[in-house]
Amino acid sequence: MHPLPLAVTLAAVLAAAPAFAQGAADPAALKKTCDKGNAADCLTLAGMHARGEGGAAKDAGKAEGFYKKACTANLAPACLELSRLVKPEEALKILDRTCTLGSAEGCGVLAARHQSGDGVERNLTRAAEYHQLACNGNWGASCVALGQMMREGRGVPKDVAKANALFAKACDAGEPASCASLGMALRTGDGIPKDPAKAVGLLRRACDKSSGLGCYGLGLSLERGEGEAKNLPKAFELYGWACDNGNEPRACQSRAQMLRDGAGIPKDPALALPLFQKACDGNIGSACFELASMHEAGRGTKRNFLAAMPLYGKACNGGDARACGRLGRLYNGTPGVEVDKDQAIAFFKQACDGGDIASCGALAPQYEYGEAPLTRDQPMAASLYKKSCDGGTQVDCYNLARMSSNGSGIPIDLPRAITLFTSSCDAGIGIACYEIATLSEKGRGMAIDRDKTKLYYKKACDAGEKRGCERVRY
Asked: Does 56 score more than 60 pLDDT?
């Protein structure tokens, strides 16, 4: 990596500025001094030809030639301008020279090229190194970019506290995006003590300077009444600006949610649909999921499972386990959708592995009973019922209790079964109450207790289990 002798760059800019700014020299005179080795005049003349100003004809070829002369004489601003005129491969060499000469902006542009893979193989580690050089030279955009990389652990070790320090540095230097990023961290206490009021100040400062993230974050604070009094109409307005003008797809999603739910504004699910679509197109996976859910449920549009499926697919591919589970359910047997058990099982497995508890519960009976294409695997079924039960699905606590009570593919464990039956019964699952009553009546895993038996048959009956009603007079 290169040191950053910024004084050299500044001196070059100051040397070049007077003649151009005052219009004291004409193109012919500048050419003569340039030809005699005055690099600053070469830079000035290049700029005049690039813009067609000061009596110089607009001529990209001449501009490039004069920038090249000035760059060869080690004027970093000339090298930076030259890099914008040449082919990508040549530009990289020039940008490297620009950075070596002390141009923080040059280091920043070079970092961005490595980060995006523009004309060079993508290399996040190299990008982070160049962003660091540029940030050290007070190039705010690189402080923002490096902070974001540190926050996410891309190309550098994840360090949210250091990321916030970089955001603070760039914000103090007047970089709106950094103020917005720091404000967002202060909103939630991400790597920094939570301070909603200070967050609002920074987000408003960024929003006032047209930062989409700033307006989006300020909208979140006002919608939730964090750091400032709740103001839903203003939040809705801020989301609109950030969505339409600030390149912030999350704001489109938030605005859509307010329209869908009627949060502080008239409810209009139909108007929410294109906003969810815009957010989905901006790779906000949860927006794709919400849009798919609206198509599936027929909210704001005609119910359309086939329209929902590719949206669930996009969300699933983006890591939203719920969407994978919805696809599994649709393929498993939904009117208008061709049944595909292989696809259903694959999506249920992906969803369950990703933490969608409902999908674990959906898989369990298919393993328990060996529904094609799966072969019967009761221990696997029990483990999936447990996963679903641990996630709060009481019906699967009942299913696990049933298997534990009967020894269905797993060892009989009556204490465990009684605990799980009781939990499910307390949650209103009548058949679980009925099972406790039968265990009490037979003295399985507990002492025979006539009063307890009657109590649980009654609970079963009250919960809709007819067999409990038949036995309640026991």
From this structure: yes
